[in-house]
Write a structure and sequence with these properties.
- With 191 residues, this protein is of the alpha+beta class.
- It has one domain: 3-Layer(aba) Sandwich (Aminopeptidase).
- Helices cover 27% and strands 31% of the residues.
- A hairpin with a 2-residue loop joins strand 7 and strand 8.
- Helix 1 packs across helix 2.
- The protein starts with 13 loop residues before the first strand and ends in a 7-residue tail after the last strand.
């Protein structure tokens, strides 16, 4: 999969084909058509349902109800309207990201903050989390950010392991049950 270089380009709807090399037998996941595009306000209720499904078993880190998840995501959309994108697999919404390229961290310049990165459990294994993370990095680069940061619940070991092993996130502080992580965004090679 390749990423669009400019996340704010006029045509932000992109199609990605997840295909394996010919020598490997292809599964339905490998052959899926994946789209990444901005979220419209009327699509947020669908994201609230995915949010609740993804937080099942980790309710202490999510919202208490779908209505509260909807209000939370609507609030994020008001503040991060240029940074809320969803993935679609074969025409169905499968995940989303909410990120803010204008976030300030204490004692630092602006960073790209990831507020939510959610993949529907039914669509895990399609590479959607990596696609969304690469998109966030691309957005960070576009806005001249050198750091991406996020919070994760201390018991969300699967996500924490993914952030730290795959993307090099390092914990830098803790607040209650929440751990804050940061990592560097490497510049584009041609910069």
């Amino acid at each position: 999969m390749s990423m669009p270089e400019d996340p704010d380009s006029p045509d932000r709807r992109r199609k990605y084909s997840l295909t394996s090399p010919p020598q490997v037998s292809q599964t339905a996941k490998d052959q899926a058509d994946v789209l990444l595009h901005p979220v419209r306000e009327n699509e947020i209720p669908e994201l609230a349902g995915i949010y609740m499904k993804a937080y099942k078993g980790m309710e202490e880190y999510g919202e208490a109800s779908t209505d509260q998840a909807l209000l939370y995501l609507q609030r994020l959309n008001r503040f991060c309207s240029k940074g809320i994108f969803k993935t679609m697999v074969n025409g169905r919404t499968a995940g989303f990201i909410v990120c803010d390229p204008h976030w300030y961290e204490p004692g630092q310049r602006k960073v790209l903050e990831i507020h939510e990165l959610v993949v529907d459990p039914d669509y895990q294994g399609y590479g959607l989390g990596s696609l969304l993370m690469r998109f966030a990095y691309s957005m960070g680069r576009k806005y001249g950010r050198s750091v991406v940061s996020l919070w994760a619940g201390e018991g969300n070991n699967r996500a924490i392991g993914w952030y730290t092993r795959k993307y090099g996130f390092k914990p830098d502080r803790k607040h209650g049950v929440w751990i804050h992580f940061q990592t560097r965004i490497e510049p584009w090679k041609n910069q």
